[in-house]
């Protein structure tokens, strides 16, 4: 698909900086810049070689006013990001220079680009597929090195290749079915069904493998919502400070010091955590503290991971037992703090009540046990077949939904095969699987979904 109009946008972040960039893409990009760019030798930009950065000024041709001193270059389609002619004007950073140059470019015939329109054109013009286009924003918004690496692999087509290979197997199945339907008088049904069953289960395994990475992928993309809970004065704020390696939360021996939810972002072994230190959960007459306790419970319900802290030097209380009951069905770590003191808590009872939870002894005052805590968080994220070194992860909820529907479709197809149903019945399920997986790469996705995806991009990308 080729788009006729020419678009322009500021490609750099707003504010003061060393340079600002105005990007222009479309069949009139070079013509527009030729009317406003004056090089030192007096030549137009189009008279210089392609991809050569050229010094000059942006000048308003109607008034003769110099707008800014710039460096500009052009590249010719299809060897560009959008597969169209692209010009980039590098001017002085700051709000005024880029804004004035963009306004002049728009006045000379360009249209202001919509959010994500440069990448949308790259997709529509066939340079990248939809999964790769979505990876562009994941790269920009990556919170950790690991998240960046996964997004870069997706931009380079790792997920797309896997999906395409699986869809090719589905196409082979459809072709086999078509041949069998055309030559139905020949006795090849058993051979056909065996072939379809083997291929179908192979496709099913590949989809399941990708889905197994989705939870870890979502966390790498969006962060792990983590809440630290426990009764007052068990060391919740001290844990937050220890994980951050700085004194972010106030720590005192007075119970109820933390009265509001403190939220911080941190990186644990490549995993982005949105971690919240909450007010101690207890009955209280203090109005402000009571509001903090209610907020703690609210964040607790929304958390992906609960870190429940206990004081090993005190006996279990009613508040401790109530929290244990609340976290039974949550992904949780149990931290027994103050192991440097005499143990009074019933450790066996805790392990029995928290039978399927990881229980770790720590001492924040002696800085013991933190490595084990970080390792446990990593193990909770990268579970089963997924390991920290894996870079082919499903990070996008849209992709996960398509895979889940594809898994359902292929499962129904395999069931139809085992029941020896008519081939045209089986064909419907196989084709549905093929089309559903095509939504990931954009081969079979609806236009309104494409529009929605690119609206979430930033302007200029």
UniProtKB/TrEMBL annotation:
Its EC number is 3.6.-.-. (6S)-5-formyl-5,6,7,8-tetrahydrofolate binds at residues 23, 88, 127, 461. Keywords: Cytoplasm, GTP-binding, Hydrolase, Magnesium, Metal-binding, Nucleotide-binding, Potassium, tRNA processing. Mg(2+) binds at residues 237, 258. Its cofactor is K(+). It is found in: Cytoplasm. The keyword Hydrolase applies. K(+) binds at residues 233, 252, 254, 257. Its main location: cytoplasm. Homodimer. Heterotetramer of two MnmE and two MnmG subunits. This is tRNA modification GTPase MnmE. It comes from Clostridium aceticum.
């Amino acid at each position: 698909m080729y788009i006729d109009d020419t678009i322009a946008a500021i490609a750099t972040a707003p504010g003061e900086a060393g340079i600002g960039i105005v990007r222009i893409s479309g069949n009139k990009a070079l013509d527009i810049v030729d009317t406003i760019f004056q090089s030192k030798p007096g030549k137009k930009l189009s008279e210089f070689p392609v991809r050569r950065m050229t010094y000059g000024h942006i000048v308003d041709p109607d008034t003769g006013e110099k707008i800014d001193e710039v460096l500009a270059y052009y590249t010719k389609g299809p060897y560009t990001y959008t597969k169209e002619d692209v010009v980039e004007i590098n001017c002085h950073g700051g709000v005024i220079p880029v804004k004035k140059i963009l306004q002049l470019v728009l006045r000379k015939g360009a249209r202001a680009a919509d959010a994500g329109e440069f990448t949308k054109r790259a997709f529509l013009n066939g340079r990248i597929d939809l999964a790769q286009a979505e990876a562009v924003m994941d790269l920009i918004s990556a919170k950790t090195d690991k998240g960046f690496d996964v997004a870069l692999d997706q931009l380079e087509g790792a997920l797309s290749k896997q999906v395409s290979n699986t869809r090719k197997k589905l196409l082979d199945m459809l072709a086999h079915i078509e041949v069998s339907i055309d030559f139905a008088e020949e006795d090849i049904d058993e051979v056909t069904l065996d072939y379809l069953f083997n291929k179908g289960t192979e496709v099913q395994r590949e989809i399941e493998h990708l889905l197994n990475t989705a939870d870890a992928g979502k966390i790498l993309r969006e962060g792990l919502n983590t809440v630290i809970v426990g009764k007052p004065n068990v060391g919740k704020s001290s844990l937050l400070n220890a994980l951050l390696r700085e004194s972010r939360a106030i720590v005192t021996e007075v119970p109820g010091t933390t009265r509001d939810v403190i939220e911080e972002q941190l990186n644990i072994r490549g995993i982005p955590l949105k971690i919240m230190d909450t007010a101690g959960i207890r009955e209280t007459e203090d109005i402000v503290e009571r509001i903090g306790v209610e907020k703690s419970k609210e964040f607790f319900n929304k958390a992906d991971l609960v870190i429940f802290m206990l004081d090993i030097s005190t006996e279990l209380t009613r508040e401790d037992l109530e929290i244990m009951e609340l976290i039974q069905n949550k992904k949780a770590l149990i931290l027994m703090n103050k192991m440097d003191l005499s143990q009074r808590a019933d450790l066996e009872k805790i392990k029995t009540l928290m039978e399927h939870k990881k229980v770790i002894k720590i001492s924040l005052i002696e800085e013991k046990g933190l490595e084990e805590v970080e390792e446990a968080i990593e193990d909770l994220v990268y579970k089963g077949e997924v390991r920290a070194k894996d870079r082919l992860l499903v990070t996008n909820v849209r992709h996960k939904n398509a895979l889940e529907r594809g898994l359902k479709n292929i499962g129904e197809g395999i069931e139809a095969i085992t029941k020896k149903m008519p081939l045209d019945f089986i064909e419907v399920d196989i084709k549905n699987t093929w089309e559903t997986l095509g939504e990931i790469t954009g081969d079979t996705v609806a236009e309104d979904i494409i529009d929605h995806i690119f609206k979430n991009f930033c302007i200029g990308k």
